Amino acid sequence: MRESLVAILVTVVSVLGAIQQVKSHKDQPLSGIAIHKITFDLNEKAYVKASPTVLGSNGQHSELVLVQYSSPKPSDDDWIGVFSPADFNASTCPGDNKMVQPPLLCSAPVKFQYANFSNPRYTNTGTGSLKLQLINQRSDFSFALFSGGLLNPKLVAISNKVAFENPNAPVYPRLALGKEWDEMTVTWTSGYGLNLAEPIVEWGVKGGEPKLSPAGTLTFGRNSMCGAPARTVGWRDPGYIHTAFLKELWPNSKYTYRVGHRLSNGALIWSKEYQFKSSPFPGQNSLQQVVIFGDMGKAEVDGSNEYNDFQRASLNTTKQLIKDLKKTGAVFHIGDICYANGYLSQWDQFIAQIEPIASTVPYMIASGNHERDWPNSGSLYQGLDSGGECGVPAETMFYVPAENRAKFWYSSDYGMFRFCVADTEHDWREGTEQYNFIEHCLASVDRKRQPWLIFLAHRVLGYSSTSFYAEEGSFAEPMGRDSLQKLWQKYKVDIAVYGHAHNYERTCPVYQSVCTSHEKSNYKGPLNGTIHVVAGGGGAGLAEFSDLKPNWSLFRDYDYGFVKLTAFDHSNLLFEYKKSSDGRVHDSFTISRDYRDILACTVDSCPATTLAS
Question: Residue limits of the Calcineurin-like phosphoesterase domain (predicted)?
Answer without folding.
Answer: 290-504
